[in-house]
Design a protein that fits this description.
four-stranded antiparallel beta sheet, Alpha-Beta Plaits, 3 domains, disordered N terminus, 9 helices
Length: about 250
């Protein structure tokens, strides 16, 4: 499994904890707002907004919250202007990091991210320093209890997916960015519930991290994901299954 897939597995477990703390809603509201600002408030004409709203509903976000976020994005409601920014850098052991951010104060956010990276033994890099190591890929996460693997595989591949991989608890349907919407629609039509569905960055190659370095990388990833302004983080690390299990159980 790639570093991306392993981190997705950890995030699946982490999401339940985050939901209780309200962090999931904060990030989803920001994504809905920026999607509506960039592409308009019509979900039928705005695939990014449609994806964001579907993710919010999957987390049982009230419709009123979704509507307010859309109106804030289209300018019907006031509020601070959000800016979409991508940062690149390095973590412990030279692990490459890509961070997608939505912020109303770029100076504050970049200062906080730089401090977090420095504290972990990493550094913030210049634009383009690691972006070439990653490519976009659609990832749809489904709990194993929600579908049979053979049927899901057939459905997903027929709809245009590249592959279906699994870990202990979930299946991950992998797609090219341009077939992501069609594959997600096919899964929705089959009434298979999704834990998460997004187009994210995946590394072409990974760096092996072990021991204390692995612990540092995983802690940094979780800290970055916990930051209210950070929408997503991609990294090119690989880690032993046993060490990942120890972290997940912590």
């Amino acid at each position: 499994m790639s570093g991306h897939s392993k981190w997705s597995s950890i995030k699946h477990k982490k999401a339940a904890r985050d939901a209780k703390r309200g962090k999931v809603f904060t990030k989803l509201i920001k994504e809905i707002t920026i999607a509506a600002r960039l592409g308009g408030g019509d979900q039928n004409a705005n695939p990014r907004l449609r994806t964001a709203v579907a993710a919010a509903k999957a987390q049982s976000m009230p419709n009123d919250n979704i509507d307010r976020a859309i109106k804030k994005g289209t300018g019907e409601l006031g509020g601070g202007q959000l800016e979409q920014v991508s940062y690149e850098g390095y973590g412990p052991g030279g692990v490459a990091l890509m961070m997608d951010v939505l912020t109303d104060n770029r100076n504050r956010t970049v200062s906080e991210i730089r401090f977090m990276l420095s504290k972990a033994g990493g550094s913030l890099g210049e634009s383009g320093c690691v972006a070439w190591m990653f490519r976009k890929r659609g990832v749809i996460t489904i709990e194993k209890s929600a579908a049979e693997e053979d049927k899901l595989m057939e459905l997903a591949l027929d709809a245009g997916a590249e592959d279906v991989v699994s870990d202990d608890e979930t299946y991950q349907v992998l797609t090219a960015p341009d077939t992501f919407s069609a594959v997600r629609a096919a899964i929705e039509a089959a009434k298979i519930p999704m834990v998460n569905a997004e187009v994210s960055l995946e590394p072409d190659n990974t760096i092996k991290v072990t021991g204390h370095q692995a612990e540092q990388v995983l802690k940094l990833m979780e800290d970055l994901e916990d930051h209210d302004d950070v929408q997503s983080v991609a990294a090119n690390f690989d880690i032993d299954e046993e060490e990942m299990a120890q972290f997940s159980a912590a």
